């Protein structure tokens, strides 16, 4: 996927038109259309605005590497706690605090290591759709 395709993906994921998204990025609609088509390079200021306004990783936007969305450590910890709680409840709920903390830590590390793809895998695992 090229940078223009990633821009289009972001725009479509937030349900925006090119004109509205261009305004959010503080560029003209014509310039934005050229960025999506790969006819013009995306200026650094626009990269920063997109990453900040739409919670997108600059590494993903520019290079196509890593997770698309940036996630704070606090958000990752909250997600890990939810997944751990659901896992424990699905497994009968009989865990001491030490075991619970170990499970939370494992889910947290998985989310940190694998980003959005890791969360998708955890969801499949929790639904019993992922082989061990």
From TrEMBL:
<feature type="domain" description="HTH cro/C1-type">
    <location>
        <begin position="7"/>
        <end position="61"/>
    </location>
</feature>
<dbReference type="Pfam" id="PF12844">
    <property type="entry name" value="HTH_19"/>
</dbReference>
<protein>
    <submittedName>
        <fullName>Helix-turn-helix transcriptional regulator</fullName>
    </submittedName>
</protein>
<dbReference type="InterPro" id="IPR001387">
    <property type="entry name" value="Cro/C1-type_HTH"/>
</dbReference>
<dbReference type="InterPro" id="IPR010982">
    <property type="entry name" value="Lambda_DNA-bd_dom_sf"/>
</dbReference>
